[in-house]
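Slide 14.
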Amino acid sequence: MAGDVLSQSEIDALLSAISTGEMTAEDAKKDEETRKVKSYDFKRALRFSKDQIRSLTRIHENFARLLTTFFSAQLRNYVQITVVSVDQIPFEEFVRSIPNMTLINVFEVPPLDGNILMEIHPNIAYSMMDRLMGGTGGSYSNVDNLTEIETKIMTNLFERSFDNLREAWENVAEIDPILVELEVNPQFLQMISPNETVIVISLNTIIGDTSGMINICIPHVVLEPIVPNLSVRYWMQSNTKQMSDEQIRTLEGRVKQASLPVVTELGATDISVQDFLTMQIGDVLQLNQKIEDPLTIKVGTLPKFTGQAGKVGKKMAVQILDPLKGADEHE
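Slide 15: predicted structure.
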């Protein structure tokens, strides 16, 4: 459904003019080049800006990645789903483009009003069904209707897939998709007015050796309350969420429970490799520090305090004397 699509009336008028000799193909091309005023078709009202279309594209690219992982696990087969196009067209035009005996999920997305459609091409739908029922994933698109068992199997599959849609939309709106019905005939769809503008997201889907399209149809009335959230500015702000007080307290508690090594250095010295190789038990090393000098205490690898060695009961211990100057600069 990518690119500009002519309505049926426009196609009929163009073919009629060419067939009667009133206009040739070259005339139509020249007329388009010289026309300075563009005609506006109120049946194809453009209610979404390019910025908002780009945001919807990003949302459903994420949804396509999540859906690829989900269907791969459920069908135990190679699955690849990618966004092909995001268009705004009249609802009537979308219904005409749907093949017969396709699989259509109608679902609500509270707290938003209205319904969203997910249309699965017969090749893909029946390939999924064949895999779920133990087959090889062959496509049997000549099925006239679904049995109760087949309907239940496909309903369960798509209801579980809605978790991915919820996750993809979470930066824009907190939605809770609920499946309303599973339809196989597009002629029975009376969801909105035929001239209502809808967003159609087309997903190219490959399952094993079978390919087809999954189309998601979102009416303007559903998106209207959250249209401001589709701007790039809101999108960037939503990706830099502030942590709540509870999250901050939880993070502080976990950091405080982290373990850190504390090391006290008695001193250091330099020796040659030859002396190191001949070193034996009982040899004495002269350190670069006097006995009465304070010792350096390191937390991790950073020097933090000075201290003095001693004992507590039968265990060796170190008493902290002072913090080292400039130690806070290394935190």
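Speaker note: The longest strand covers residues 79-90.
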